[in-house]
Amino acid sequence: MKPSSKNSPLRILPLGGLGEIGMNCMVLEYEDEMLVVDCGLMFSDLDHFGVEFVIPDFSYLHARKEKLKGFLVTHGHEDHIGALPFALKSGLRAPIYASPFSSLLIQARLEEYGIKPDIRTFKPGESFGFKHFQVHTTSVNHSIIDAAAMIIDTPYGKIIHTGDFKIDKTPFYGSHLDENFFKRAGEDGVLLLLSDSTNVERESESHSECVVEEKFEEVFAAAEGLVLIAMFASNVSRVGQIMKVAEKLGKKVAVGGRSMEQNVRHAQKLGYLENAQRVQIGIEDVKRFNRDEVVVISSGSQAEFGSALQRISHGEHKHIHVGPGDKVIMSSRHIPGNEKVIGRMINQLFMQGADVLYGAVKNIHVSGHATKPELKRMIEWTKPRFFLPIHGEYSHLVHHARLAEETGIPKDRIQVVTNGTLLEITPDRFEVVEKFEEPRVLIEGREGNEMTDLVLRDRRQIGERGVVFSILIRNIESRLILSGPEIILKGVAPPDREGFLIEEAKKKVHKIIDKYEDELDNGSPQMDLQETIRIELRRFFNANIGKKPTVLPMILDL
Question: Which uninterrupted H or E stretch holds 18?
């Protein structure tokens, strides 16, 4: 392809995934055409303030929405597809290009929001085109089936987007990563490599899925009670291994959790989990078998509120409980930020008598991300002219950039940037041209209501300092106070101090009322009664407890 204008650089804008784990979203723009690679969300660590998700800010896309020609999805994890409902609900319209399993996950998720999308399914290995871009896909190994990398032909050369990947010579499902696909691209010439940085700090090769299967067989065979495996619902290969080992040992498998059940159905629809009908039982049928004859696969490995495992850990699940002799296997990594809630859940499981195998126990989980040696091979295969590390904390991006430099890419051809950094690229240059404000939106609840920074600030302040209500009843004609003040404290002080503080606060308000009514007797009062109460009560509580709560004076005119 030849560029139609020497004055038309190719623009690249990360809206998520650079400088953080999750919310992956990358914009490619050339003249009158724009593509978005992945559109993910990030689960919020502000859930105690009502923030459930963080999604990209789509303002840049809305300002150019007539250019948007497609959402390209590398795989079906939430951090790559979870923001699609919010993008489409906001008015962005474009076909979604995804692999078979990813398409089913996207379809199910969008149906929850009442959205009928235009999904165009490709099998990894297939190609599809646009006016300025030609997209070639290839299968890669990851912790979800049907993951794909993409080589995107642009007017200036090839851009490779690896998606999330690892190099697994013995994957349980699917073919292993085709290194010749990337080598051929490197021989033809690669303008830019965008490569997953998540595990760049790990020096050793990643383990194959077959290692986990061996550990499962060891644990299942020795089980004296029920075995419960907590994992990501999308990891169909792991489910397949569990069912294979269970069938070999004559055990039954029950699936717990709505997302887990849904993904098992999707996988069967595509021809995976071929032995499910022989080994799977309903979660309600577990009690019909001896405990050492059953393996339960559960979602909720991140201790998500209301998830199957979270309810099991509190003894609140309708069908599954754990106790002495049972084993719980945490076969997933801890997403950064979830460590505390996962730790509490693990403690709850131990307190019920179960033995829990987790992070420190080897071979119960393998990562789906390439480590340093594999990332180096990707750079060597593709020989890119320019390099942009993606998908990782800022430290990951820096380490990946250093690896690229060690592998032979000149430092001045490598960019380390964060979300909202607009880059332009031609065969001769790769540079930052603009930096936008942090492009993220806080989402409250699954309906997708946006929470502003002002609301979040107010909630944080109330959560940290508490709130004081001061209620008065006033005659609407005479303006005299009829009753009150009633003082209510929420989250301000411990119960043993509340009584004293309330009585002293009332005295403060009575003095303000006396002054207000004196001014009333002398004509028109100059005092703003509500504002004066607010200021004086904040000063009072600061003097007595060392913090200024939110004070809400309420005057009811009757």
Answer: strand 18-19
The tens digit of pLDDT for each residue in 515-526 reads 888 888 777 777
pLDDT given at position 157: 96
Mean pLDDT, residues 17-39 taken together: 96
| Tokens 């993951």 -> residue | 147
**Number of C-beta neighbours around residue 558 at 10 A:** 9
- Categorize the per-residue pLDDT at 4 as very low, low, confident or very high, splitting at 50, 70 and 90: very low
E-state strands within 171-212: 190-196
3-state secondary structure of 33: strand
200-214 in b/e form (b: 16+ CB < 10 A) is bebeeebbbbebbbe
| d(C-alpha 155, C-alpha 165), whole Å | 26
Closest by Cα among 346, 272, 362, 360 to 313:
346
- For 280, the enclosing helix (H) or strand (E) is strand 280-281
> What was the pLDDT predicted at 2?
45
Nearest to 413 by CA among 423, 150, 185: 423
Instruction: State residue 452's pLDDT score.
Output: 65
What would the 3-class secondary structure string for 326-389 be? CEEEECCCCCCCCHHHHHHHHHHHHHCCCEEECCCCCCCCCCCCCEHHHHHHHHHHHCEEEEEE
- The rounded distance, in Å, linking the Cα atoms of 128 and 478 is 77
Is residue 485 reached through a cis peptide bond, with omega within 30 degrees of 0 on the bond before it? yes
Predicted confidence (pLDDT) at residue 333 exceeds the cutoff of 50: yes
Contact 237, 172 (CB under 8 A): yes
**Higher-pLDDT residue of 128, 4:** 128
SS3 481: strand
Q: Helix or strand or coil: residue 432?
A: strand
Residue identified by tokens 């303008």 is 191
Say what the pLDDT of residue 423 is: 98
Q: Which of 283, 284, 295, 211 is nearest to 249 (CA)?
A: 295
Give the tokens for residue 507.
């005295």
Mean pLDDT, residues 514-541 taken together: 86
Query: pLDDT tens-digit profile of 145-162?
Result: 999 999 999 999 999 999
CA dist 551 and 184 (Å) reads: 67
3-state secondary structure of 77: coil
Tokens of 530: 């509500």
Give pTM, 2 decimals. 0.84
Structural contact between residues 419 and 17, judged by C-beta atoms closer than 8 angstroms: yes
How far apart, in whole angstroms, are the C-alpha atoms of residue 159 and residue 10?
11
First to last CA, the chain: 76
Q: What is the phi-psi region of residue 482: left when phi exceeds 0, alpha when psi lies from -120 to 50, beta otherwise?
A: alpha
Report the phi/psi class of residue 419: left, alpha or beta, with left for phi > 0 and alpha for psi in -120 to 50.
Answer: beta
- Strands 252-256 and 280-281: what pairing? parallel
